[in-house]
Each structure stands twice: as C-alpha cells, then as structure tokens.
Amino acid sequence: MTKGTFPIDKLKGIETPFYYYDMELLKKTLKIVKEETKKYGFIQHYAVKANANRRILEVIATEGFGADCVSGNEVKAAMAAGFPASKIVFAGVGKTDKEINVALDYNIFCFNVESLPELEVINELAAKKGKLAQVALRINPNVDAHTHEYITTGLSENKFGFNMNHLDKVIEKIGTLKNISLIGIHFHIGSQIEDVTTFAPLCARVNELQKFFEERGIQLPHINLGGGLGIDYEDPTAHPISDFVAYFELFHKNLQLRDGQTAHFELGRCIVAQCGALMTKVTYVKEGENKKFAILDAGMTDLIRPALYQAYHKIENISSDLPVQKYDVVGPICESSDTFAKDYELNETKRGDLIALRSAGAYGEIMASQYNCREIPKAYFSDKI
Ligand code: PLP
Hints:
Blueprint lengths: L7 H4 L6 E4 L1 H18 L2 E5 L6 H9 L3 E4 L2 H9 L7 E3 L6 H10 L3 E4 L2 H13 L4 E8 L21 E2 L3 H8 L5 E7 L13 H16 L6 E3 L19 H11 L7 E4 L3 H4 L3 E12 L4 E5 L8 H5 L5 E3 L6 E7 L8 E9 L6 E4 L20 E4 L4
Parallel strand pairs: 1-17, 2-3, 2-10, 3-4, 4-5, 5-6, 6-7, 6-8, 8-9, 9-10, 12-14
Antiparallel strand pairs: 1-11, 11-12, 11-16, 13-16, 14-15
Bound molecules: pyridoxal-5'-phosphate (PLP).
Pyridoxal-5'-phosphate binds next to loops.
C-alpha cells in the first residue's frame, strides 16, 4: 500500500487537527458519477448528511446534482449552497412540523415519507399553506445490506420506512389526503456496501412492488434507490474512486423501469469520503507496559467513526519514512473509546509528526462535536492553500 501524496510543506504550518480536502479528487469523482448516471438517464442527489461543508456542497451543486436531506437545517444548507429546490428530497423518520414547514416553504421536490402519522401531518401543514406536497413512500424492503448493524437500515427490525404489509392501508389513506401527491417510492438499505450484487435483491423487491402498485391502479413516476455504495477504507490510495460503473450498471440491468419512469440515487459516502483526510499531529509517544501509544491532537470529537462503529481508517505518518513500529493510536479525549486503532503499524513516530487519517471526508467533519469543550476542526482545500 502506498501513502497518499499530501502537500506536506503547505500542510505542516497549519494548526492541527483540521480536515483537508483534495478538490481534484472530488471533482473527478463527481465527473464519473455524472457520466455513469447519464448513460442510463438516472438522477443523482448527493446525501448531505455525509458532509455538509459549505464549499463541498457548493462544488457538488455546481455539478448539477440534487440534494438528499434528512433535516430542515440540511434543506436550508442545501438551498444556501445553491441546490435548486426542485432537486431536493427530504427523508427522515422524525420530521418535525417546523422542518416540514421549511421544506414546504421552499417547495422542495419530494418528501420521502416514513410513516402514516407523518403523511397526515404533511397533508395538514400543506393544506394550511394551500399547497400540494409531493411525496414518495419510503418502504422498508427487508433486504439485508450485509454491513455493520449500525448502518443497516432496510431490515424489518429497523426503524426506517413503511412495513410492506401495511401498504394497502397506506394507499387507502393517501386517497383521502387532498394535499398530498404520491409521486414515487423510496428505499435505502444501508451504507458502506462493498459488493454491488447486494443491491440485486433490492431491485427484485422494487420490481415486485411496482407490480403491487400497478395492480392497484397506481403509476409511480419516480423510484428512489437510496445510497449505500461503499469505499475502500483499507487502501484509499489504490482505490480512490468506487466502482460506479458496476453499481449503476447493476441497477440498469436489474430494475424494470417503466416508460417515462425516473430512477433516483442519493449517494453520500462514496462521493466525498476519499477526498477528505483528518490531519493531526502526534502530541506524545508514550510507553505502555507492553505497547506504545501514539497520542494525537485529534480525537473522537473530530472523527467519531472508530469509536461509534469500530470503523477502520488508514493512518499514515506522512512525516516519517522510518521503519514501521506498532502503536495504539489514540486521541486526547477522556474516554477509553477514543482510540483510532490498536497495534497499528506506523512509520516510527515522534512528537510533532504529521499524521493523516484517511477516507475521512464522509461522516467525519459533519459528526464533529465539542465534547471536552474542544473546538470543531477547520477545513482546508487543496485548491486554496
Ligand atoms: N439516503 C438515506 C435515506 C440515508 O439514510 C443515507 C445514509 O444513511 C444515504 C442516503 C446515504 O448513504 P451513503 O452515504 O451510504 O451513500
């Protein structure tokens, strides 16, 4: 595995920890996604939850993507960054009245609705504003994403979406709601899915459900397949871009789309993860009883994924080419879970070395917290340093 190529002279003077984004890689990734979706007439919405940094959002909006939001503030952030309301979808199991009103005021493209009471509330709030809200039903397809349990969302035991057995009741209800227009169905089975064939059973389920709706006289113009395509956390330098070719081809081959029907996607992680790294310095190297600790100035407050779901991030000492030694790589936070990796082979490390935690562009900066009264890390961009 080769190390990433970081502009170390430019980076070493910046106060750590900070996020560093390779904008060339982001743009290359966006270009490939655009090419592959264009082949099949698919529509791509970027999942804002993965990274809502204003500059990142602006670049993605400029490339013509729509936005997939899961809160009223994400809808506002997407609008402020230049995503047109006509390309914004809004999912989430617990949308509040305030959030729904924000989205109604902007006239977003579609609410991805997850329960009957939510449908009723959107109808009621839309009626008060004299509007017709476009909705898609998020259906829980009971398809196993074969990923970490915390990022599996499409099993019937998960909190997301409508249970398939309840759909007749839902359709009946929608018939009575005057300020709701049903325009589609929506799915999202999970995240960090590395084997694209995992999505084949989802396509089969969508094909079945299409028939179910048609038998009830309902044509759906939009099918939203969610996100979930994984990235290579082990070797980001060798595989900086996910296999979008195979991913979109699988949907093209397996989905039975009707004439005029549009397939939408809302990828997050695989768009932004590889372009971001958390840059941090070694504060101390400490000898333990049988091990050494490399204590960084970044902690779980800056990148929570390892503490939250035992996630792996490749760690590189970009200041050293000395032979590797094993370290427990830890942060300064007063929690034992503030550990990035155990027995990890790093080029021999000393105080002040610059360390890169790779593949941190997704679910990194956006999940930063101020626990221990820490500062939120700043962001720097390769084309502006
Ligand atoms: N769509 C929905 C509804 C989601 O909940 C998520 C992530 O949780 C995504 C899209 C983006 O998923 P990913 O970042 O894995 O592509």
